[in-house]
Amino acid sequence: MNYPLSEEERIIQKTARDFATKDLAPVAEAANKEGTFPDEVYTKLGELGFMGITVPEEYGGVGLNNFSLVLVLEEISRVCASTAVTMSVHNSLTNWAIKTYGSEDLKKRYLPRLATAEILGAYALTEPSAGSDVSSVRMSAVKKGNEYILNGTKIFISTGNKAGAVIVFARTNPDDRKHGLSAFVVEPDFPGFSVGKIEKKMGLKAST
Predict the structure, then answer these.
(1) Element (H, E) at 133
(2) Fold held by 122-186
(3) Superfamily holding 7-119
(4) In sequence order, which residues have a C-beta less than 8 Å from that of residue 75 and are 6 or more positions away?
(5) What pTM, to 2 d.p., does this model score?
(6) Gap between the Cα atoms of 181 and 174, Å rounded
(7) What is each CA distance from 184 to 8, 11, 23, 98, in whole angstroms?
(8) Angle made by CA atoms 129, 156, 77, in degrees to the nearest 5
(9) How far is CA 121 from CA 8, 24, 61, 162, 190, in A?
(10) pLDDT tens figures, 67-88
(11) Residue 181: left if φ>0, alpha if ψ -120 to 50, beta else—which one?
């Protein structure tokens, strides 16, 4: 199906394509061979507005739709799928979860920094015994006073070792297997947070 792009969408597409060609391509091959994470790439993507493209303007984003995000991801992935994966997790999972379900305090605290790539986002759902079967999540969250204590382990979390804001799913109601989960925004300097061994991958090596 041929979908005619608007003038704004063509500009977004061209901007992403130019960035991918001029800024990303020169570093992508080496980054994927060596398994390095090019922080400067995400700084530039933040300056272009692509790390907060669907975040409302009032929270420091560009305020565009998901189709615009897809246009950007398509151009980026032509050159470096690793970068596109990191961008997708950041935009489609972390930013989306906070802007859609987060309190006003969470939106103000995290979205402006996520939108500019001051911090990156991650989405921690998968566990050693739970992946696609979300109802098998075992990480617990117990309320103590005004705080929740999370206890458990997550694995295979994209950008988990680089993120400044991690959406973590934990069980707040152990008696409700299907609906007893809650999502928390966790920062890497919170007490008890640690990152384990970074696994070697067959591909997408410039993402973590």
Answers:
(1) none
(2) Butyryl-CoA Dehydrogenase, subunit A; domain 2 (2.40.110)
(3) Acyl-CoA dehydrogenase/oxidase, N-terminal domain (1.10.540.10)
(4) 13, 16, 17, 19, 20
(5) 0.92
(6) 9
(7) 35, 36, 35, 10
(8) 140
(9) 27, 20, 15, 8, 15
(10) 999 999 999 999 999 999 999 9
(11) beta
